[in-house]
HTH crp-type domain-containing protein
Amino acid sequence: MLNENMIDVAEMIGSSYRQLQRVLRYFIKQEYMKKIDKGKYMILDFKSLQELGKDLYHI
């Protein structure tokens, strides 16, 4: 479960807060994650998220 300040998370990954929100909405729509509460998300499909990251990091 992710329970962090979204502005801090965006800064850590070199993104804007708005772009982070768009990505989180996309992940929710694809059912990779679900929103638990304000600022709290749960990963539902870790394997799919790993697959998305493979090309990015050449794993």
